[in-house]
Amino acid sequence: MESKSKRYIVVRFSELSxxxxxxxxxxxTLIRNINEKIKAENIDAKVLNKRDxxxxxxxxxxxxxxxxxxxxVGISSYxxxxxxxxxxxxxxxxxxxxxxxxxxxxxxxISVKLIDKELYDDKxxxxxxxxxxxxxxxxxxxxxxxxxxxxxxxxxxxxxxxHFGKKDGIIGLPSGVNGKALALLSGGIDSPxxxxxxxxxxxxxxxxxxxxxxxxxxxxxxxxxxxxxxxNKYNGIPQKLFFVNFERVxxxxxxxxxESYRIILLRRYFMKFAELVSKKYGYKFLITGxxxxxxxxxxxxxxxxxxxxxxxxxxxxLVSLSKNEIIKIAEEIKTYNISIGPGDDMCSSFTxxxxxxxxxxxxxxELENMLINMEDILYKVLDEExxxxxxxxxxND
Length: 397
Ligand code: ATP
Ligand code: MG
Fold this sequence. Notes:
Radius of gyration: 27 Å
Helix content: 25-40%
Number of strands: 15
Bound molecules: adenosine-5'-triphosphate, magnesium ion
Largest sheet: 9 strands, mixed
Structural class: alpha/beta
């Protein structure tokens, strides 16, 4: 046992270019987000602010911290650190204990920093000794370019501080520094990725899904819940999921005899409704998974008419990504398999054969004028047909 050595985690920030108040808020939000997850997981640990980095200490649970950091945005990398007295025996003990389980011939390299030169004043000699230890005692092989283990050792304040390489974090801004927003979540591949991309720019993101009695079966509800829960893991603090039964609005739109404008009108009412929800709950903007030119409602003309339905900002983080790029992210954040699973959110009977690709402003106005009491209907849907779920209270699977 390395009884005399201390073990902790060092977390390095991403977005190092931030200055002044921004940087302070970045760090405080990052600490709050880590603490939030530590508490939710019942882990007994402390996060210490060391100005240009964080240290996480824990008596019993330090090995559980990586599973928390996996979902924290705003980290460039993190490492386990080992602190011991500078005697050769103690240093070798740490190396031995931490590296023993690697097979023979594992590649490694060594970096040494002598901040104070109390015991060792010749860096070359220290490197020589460690190289000898690595090759002769551990059976490893030195490889300065392609190495599996990166042995870093720093001598400072009468101590040796050792780490064995960096693990990548999620770069971006800590969720919450840019307030909160509402993502339109379908059961498809794109919208969960769009929500995630927004979260990684510092925005705590809630989710809203529009259903009808025809589409809200168990498969769909489970799928949406699981998608929202998965993406919600990246939020700084748990957010909400809104299930909206939009049947009343759909019935009104179906009364119009112009089939080709159905989808664009439905999308505009999605936005009008999401804007009402945002006013009630304080969301700063809306997010969709639209990517330019995939389907009829995603032409620049359609997007313009959808934007014009409301005053609130609509952000489309995926607009310039290819499907492959989107799928890659969906796989990384583990939403892809949920998205391609059972459960279809859109009512196929509602989708016309030939949806309009270049919708006209005048025509939209004419059609919407024929719909009466839509504002009342939207408020009724908000009061009577909207289920709000607190994602912090839903169980993770
Ligand atoms: P996705 O993969 O996210 O479903 P998509 O490429 O299939 O996207 P559409 O189905 O046209 O494209 O939807 C575009 C965007 O509109 C979605 O990404 C989502 O943000 C929103 N959206 C579509 N249908 C719904 C719905 N029923 N409830 C909430 N949002 C929706
Ligand atoms: Mg879809």
